[in-house]
Amino acid sequence: MSDKINNIIEELKSLTLLEAAELVKQIEDVFNVDASAVSSSGMLMMSPSGDNQVIEEVQEKTEFDVILEEVPTPKKIAILKVVRSLTSLGLKEAKELVESVPKSIKESTSKEDADEIKGKLEEAGAKVSIK
After folding, report:
1. All CATH 3.30.1390.10 domain ranges in the chain, comma separated
2. How far is CA 118 from the centre of its chain?
């Protein structure tokens, strides 16, 4: 331990019980902690003071999944071609994907990419949703 910490510990040892209680009260006020709320690790827990207002920020969704919802039979081949170009799947895998709707085409993609993929699939005749 450093000399600074050793000096603080020695000073704490010399405090009376009343002085220690006053010190705890001051630490709670200054650092906005509650010494009575002890976690399993034995550390002090932070508690919000009445003066501070917690402002929750609404997190804007940044990752989207493109879901192929419906494939009309007459448009199946055109949609299959678009799915292959978007996913780089082979013919067999793309055919299985198109035939087992609803299925995810792309996961965790940006809003712009999701909209672009949706546009291409809808242009080919598919029903698509973004989640």
Report:
1. 64-130
2. 24
What is each CA distance from 16 to 8, 10, 12, 21, in whole angstroms?
A: 15, 13, 9, 9
Supply the mean pLDDT for the chain: 80
DSSP secondary structure string for all residues of 40-96: TTSPEEE---SS----PPPPPP--EEEEEEE--GGGHHHHHHHHHHHH---HHHHHH
Start-to-end Cα distance in the chain: 54
In tens, the pLDDT along 23-53 reads 888 888 888 887 775 544 455 455 555 444 4
Q: Are 98 and 80 in contact (CB under 8 A)?
A: yes
CA distance 35 to 46: 9
Class of domain 64-130: alpha beta
The set of residues, in sequence order, having a beta carbon less than 8 Å from that of 13 and lying 6+ positions away, is none
Distance CA 113, CA 106 (A): 9
Residues 6+ apart with CB under 8 A from 113: 106
